[in-house]
Specification:
The complex is a heterodimer. Chain A has one domain: Orthogonal Bundle (MetI-like fold), CATH 1.10.3720. Chain A contains 12 helices and no strands. Chain A starts with 14 loop residues before the first helix and ends in a 7-residue tail after the last helix. By secondary structure, chain B is an alpha+beta fold. Chain B is built from 8 helices and 20 strands. In chain B, strand 17 and strand 18 form a beta hairpin. Chain B is elongated. Classes of the chains: A mainly alpha, B alpha+beta.
Chain lengths: 305, 364
C-alpha cells in the first residue's frame, strides 16, 4: 500500500524555510528591495522632479562625477575628521565622567540621570540651542565674552571655517558624551575589585593601576561605544543642517548634508544615491574596524574571575 | 627581616567598630594563621596589614617601620586573594612578571625570577595561557607564584583555598606548607577553617567579634583553650560543653548525674560554682575503644542516638544531661541506635570553664 506523500509544505525539510518566511519577506520588502532600488538609481540620471528619468541608464557616470568632485571629497574628508575628533573627545570626557561618578557614593543615581539629560533632547533642538548660543550678534557666548571683557568684537562662531566646525563638534560632543559615560560606567560597575587590589599590592601607583588593569578591562566597552557612535556621527545631519546648513560656502559640509542637498534641493537623486553608497561603505569600514578591535579586546574576558 | 607588629589596632567603619584594639607580634619567618568565624575581623586585620584598609587607630609596623600611612606598594608585601585576582588580560607569564615589570626590573631578572617561581609551583607548561584557560587549582598556583616572584618581606593569604573543592583544598594546603618551607618568609594567613589553621600554622590566632581570643601553637590552642569559644571552634567534631555545678568535689550535671572534679583542677573550682564541663569527643569513648589507657577516668552509661561510621572511627551521638554530646569509638564495631554503652570519660583531658565568664578555670 503506497502512501501518498504529504504536500510539500508539510514535509520536514521545508519546515525551517516556511517558519522563516515571514522574516525573510519582511527583510526583502523593507530592506533588500529599497536597497537594490537605490543602488539601481545610482546608475541612472534619476531626478525627483522628472520621474521618467528613472529609466535613463547612465552607467557609472554618477560615480565618475562624484569621485572627480572636489566638494564631495572635502565633505568626505571633513566627515572623517569630524568623526575622529568627536569620538576621541567624547571618549576622553566620557571616561573622565564615568571615573568620577564611579567614585561618588552619595547621590550617584541622581547624577547618572542628570548625565543623561542631553540625550533626551531631539538633535534638532540641540542644534537650535547651540545656534543661538554661538550666534555672533545675539548669542549668549559672545555676550558673555564681551561682558567679561575677554573679547571686544563679535566672534563669528558659525561663519569662520574653523570656529564653525568647532561649534558643531562642540554641540555633538555636548549631546552624546553621555553615551560613552554610561557605557564606561557600566564597565566600571562590572569590574572585579580584586585585580585592582592585587595590582596595588603588586606595587602599582594609582595611575599604573588605571593604565594596566582598569583601562584594558574597559576597552571592550570603549569599542562598543565607538561602534555605536561612529555609525551615529557618520550619518550626522540634523545638528549641522540646523546650525550652519553646511555653509557658509560649504565650510561645514558633511557627507549627509551634501547628499541631502544634492538629492532634495537639486533633485539629483541618482547622484545623491551614488554618494550615499560611498558613505555606507565608509560606515561599514568603521564598524568593521571597531568590531575587530572589540573581539580582540574581549577574547580574554570570558570566564576569568 | 620582617617582623610584623600590631599595636592597639582599631578599625572603624563610620561609628561601627569592627576590630577592637588588637595586639599581635609576628616573628620573622613565622607562619601565623588568623582564624575565626565570618565577621570576626580577621580579613579586615589582614587588609590593614596589606594597606588596603585604613587603620583607624593604633599602629602596624613591618620590620622596624611603622606602615600606617604607606600605600600598599611601599610595604613590600605580597597578597594571595580568595578569588585569585589574576589579571584576566595577561598570560600566566605576564601575570607572574607584572609586579617586577612595574618595579622596573630588567628583562633578564624578570625572566629568571618568573622561571624560578614557575619551577617551584610547577607552572612551566601553563606559561602562555590566560587565566580564563586555567582550572581553579592552577589559578591559585599562579596567584601564589605572583606573590613569590617579588621576594616580599611577608606573604598575606586571604582565605586562599575556600574557592577550591575539598580534595584540591587538601592538596593545595600541603603545597602551601611545602612552599613556606622552601621560601622562608613571614606569612599571615586568614581562614575560617580550623583544620587549615591547625595544619599550617606555627601559631594560631583565634579571633571573634574583633577581639583576639587566644594566641598559641596549634597544640597549645587545642589542648589548652582559654575559653568556651576557642574550645568549641578548634577541633572537629567540636568539644562537648555541658553546663554543671560543683558540689562536694564532684561536677553535677542538671540531670543529677555526676563525675568527680579532675584531680589537676581540684583547687581551681569553688563549691557551688556554676561551670561548663568540656570534653572532646576523642575523650568520651566506649570502654575498650579509647585512644590510650585512660589515666584518670570516670565511667558513665549512655544511650546511643545515632552513629556515624568513618572507617577508622565511629562518631557516636548521645545525650548527657539532656544535651546532645558526641563521642568517638576507635576500632569500631557496629553500633545500633538505642543501644546503651558504658563510656570512659578521660578526666585528665577534661576542661572546666566558669559558666559566667566562659573562661577556663585553669589560670596559668
Amino acid at each position: 500500500m503506497a502512501n501518498k506523500p504529504p504536500p510539500f509544505w508539510q514535509r520536514e525539510k521545508y519546515t525551517p524555510y516556511i517558519l522563516l518566511l515571514p522574516a525573510i519577506l519582511t527583510l526583502v520588502f523593507v530592506v533588500l528591495l529599497p536597497l537594490l532600488f537605490s543602488l539601481y538609481t545610482s546608475f541612472t540620471g534619476y531626478r525627483l522632479i522628472r520621474p521618467e528619468s528613472l529609466y535613463q541608464w547612465v552607467g557609472l557616470r554618477n560615480y565618475e562625477r562624484i569621485f572627480s568632485d572636489g566638494d564631495f571629497w572635502s565633505a568626505f574628508g571633513r566627515t572623517i575628521i569630524f568623526l575622529t575628533i568627536a569620538l576621541n573627545v567624547e571618549f576622553l570626557l566620557g571616561l573622565g565622567i564615568a571615573l568620577l561618578i564611579n567614585k561618588i557614593t552619595w547621590g550617584q543615581r541622581t547624577l547618572r540621570t542628570i548625565m543623561m539629560f542631553p540625550m533626551m533632547f531631539s538633535p534638532i533642538l540641540v542644534g537650535y540651542q547651540f545656534k543661538f548660543v554661538f550666534n555672533d550678534n545675539i548669542g549668549i557666548l559672545n555676550n558673555a565674552l564681551q561682558s567679561l571683557g575677554l573679547s571686544d568684537g563679535a566672534i563669528p562662531w558659525l561663519v569662520d571655517k574653523y570656529l564653525a566646525n568647532f561649534a558643531i563638534i562642540f554641540a555633538e560632543v555636548w549631546m552624546s558624551t553621555s553615551v560613552f559615560a554610561i557605557l564606561l560606567l557600566a564597565g566600571l560597575f562590572a569590574m572585579p575589585r580584586d585585580p585592582l587590589e592585587a595590582a596595588k599590592v603588586d606595587g602599582c601607583t594609582p595611575w599604573q593601576v588605571f593604565r594596566h588593569i582598569t583601562l584594558p578591562f574597559l576597552m571592550p566597552f570603549v569599542f562598543i561605544a565607538m561602534t555605536i557612535r561612529s555609525l551615529d556621527v557618520a550619518r550626522a545631519y540634523d545638528i549641522v543642517d540646523v546650525m550652519t546648513g553646511g555653509g557658509p560656502a560649504g565650510r561645514t559640509e558633511l557627507l549627509w548634508t551634501l547628499i541631502a542637498r544634492t538629492g532634495y534641493d537639486n533633485a539629483r537623486m541618482g547622484q545623491a544615491n551614488a554618494m550615499a553608497y560611498v558613505s555606507i561603505i565608509l560606515s561599514i569600514a568603521f564598524t568593521y574596524y571597531f568590531f575587530t578591535k572589540l573581539i580582540a579586546a574581549r577574547k580574554y574576558m570570558g570566564g576569568a574571575a | 627581616m620582617a617582623e610584623i607588629t600590631l599595636k592597639d589596632v582599631v578599625k572603624r567603619y563610620g561609628k561601627v567598630e569592627v576590630v577592637h584594639g588588637i595586639n599581635l607580634d609576628i616573628a620573622h619567618n613565622e607562619f601565623v594563621v588568623l582564624v575565626g568565624p565570618s565577621g570576626c575581623g580577621k580579613s579586615t586585620t589582614l587588609r590593614m596589614i596589606a594597606g588596603l584598609e585604613d587603620i583607624s587607630d593604633g599602629t602596624i609596623s613591618i620590620g622596624p617601620e611603622v606602615v600606617n600611612d604607606l600605600p600598599p606598594r611601599k610595604r613590600n608585601i605580597s597578597m594571595v586573594f580568595q578569588n585569585y585576582a589574576l589579571y584576566p588580560h595577561m598570560s600566566v607569564r605576564e601575570n607572574l612578571g607584572f609586579g617586577l615589570k612595574i618595579a622596573k626590573q630588567d628583562a633578564a631578572t624578570i625572566k629568571r625570577r618568573v622561571d624560578e617561581a614557575a619551577d617551584i609551583l610547577g607552572l612551566d607548561a601553563l606559561m602562555d595561557r590566560t587565566p580564563a584557560e586555567l582550572s581553579g587549582g592552577q589559578r591559585q598556583r599562579v596567584a601564589m607564584g605572583r606573590a613569590i616572584v617579588r621576594h616580599p618581606e611577608a606573604f598575606l593569604f586571604d582565605e586562599p583555598l575556600s574557592n577550591l573543592d575539598a580534595k584540591l583544598r587538601v592538596q593545595m594546603r600541603t603545597e602551601i606548607k611545602k612552599l613556606h618551607q622552601k621560601v622562608k618568609t613571614t606569612v599571615v594567613y586568614v581562614t575560617h577553617d580550623q583544620v587549615e589553621a591547625m595544619t599550617l600554622a606555627d601559631r594560631i590566632v583565634v579571633m571573634k567579634d574583633g577581639h583576639i581570643e587566644q594566641v598559641g601553637t596549634p597544640m597549645d590552642v587545642f589542648n589548652h583553650p582559654v575559653n568556651t569559644f576557642v574550645a568549641s571552634f578548634i577541633g572537629s567534631p567540636p568539644m562537648n560543653l555541658l553546663p554543671a555545678t560543683v558540689q562536694n568535689g564532684t561536677v553535677v550535671f542538671s540531670d543529677g548525674k555526676s563525675v568527680p572534679v579532675p584531680a589537676r583542677l581540684k583547687d581551681r573550682v569553688r563549691e557551688g560554682q556554676e561551670v561548663i564541663f568540656g570534653l572532646r569527643p576523642d575523650d568520651l569513648t566506649p570502654v575498650g575503644h579509647g585512644i590510650a589507657e585512660a589515666g584518670d577516668s570516670a565511667r558513665v552509661a549512655l544511650d546511643i542516638i545515632l552513629s556515624e561510621p568513618l572507617g577508622t572511627e565511629t562518631i557516636l551521638y548521645t545525650t548527657i544531661a539532656g544535651q546532645e554530646a558526641q563521642g568517638k569509638m576507635f576500632g569500631p564495631r557496629n553500633v545500633l541506635p538505642g543501644e546503651t554503652l558504658e563510656f570512659d570519660l578521660a578526666m585528665d583531658k577534661a576542661h572546666i570553664f566558669d559558666a559566667e565568664s566562659g573562661k577556663t578555670v585553669r589560670l596559668d
